[in-house]
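hey m, so remember when u said the tokens were messed up on ur end? i reran from scratch. heres the input so u can diff it against urs
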Amino acid sequence: MISPTITDLGPVWVVPSYVAHNAGTFDVTVEITRAVWDGLVQNPDLLDGDDFQDRLNLLLRDAYEVANTTDDERAPLSVARNRTNGERFVTELTIQLNDADDPGSRIVLALASQLPVDAPSRADRLASGDLVEVPADLAREAGLRFPVALTRAAWEDCVAWSDADNRRKGTVQDETGRLWDVLCAARGALVGMPRAHRRAAVSLVRTPRERRIRKAHPATLHVSVIRENGQQVITISHPSEA
């Protein structure tokens, strides 16, 4: 039986270790704060999962994938879910990991930001042009094995290029080459980032499109990894969108 209790984090729902273990994840007791339980587990308005047990198992699997890749005491987790009315939202969680030296310690899933934060789905953003999809073969060649997309702002700042730009600046560039540079820089940022952190700064140089500037100038983008519709996806964004 899953029951509530009171802790220093406020009311939490205690998930016995055998429940988490049966979900194929944690072998220790997991505690879920009331806000997370109400919003992501015991919520009849969610399209994800047939009942609260399905939604609980989905949340535990998401948490386990992150917790199993970090040695930190806490790890962030971004969870995307769908409502029955077709709306979509993303919830930022914090996973407080158990102390390996203390058999009685527990894992706690808590909110990191207010629930919910409404957000269009990735498919919606691709369809509207807000996101620009990267060809899968090019992403794989750059070492990125998950689907990759750039926000329109990031694309316009660091990738977009035309023959008119070359004539105006006296350069020989193209969008594929500029995109390759961005992908390689993003790959380098992800390699140095614990997977559980899910977000890193990407430093690169590119020739700005504005005016007649020919010299490459430094630029910074952000790369993030979240789980959406059962798979990991990568988004490269501009700092102005943070």
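this time it looks ok to me. The radius of gyration is 21 Å. if urs says something different then somethings off w ur setup not the seq
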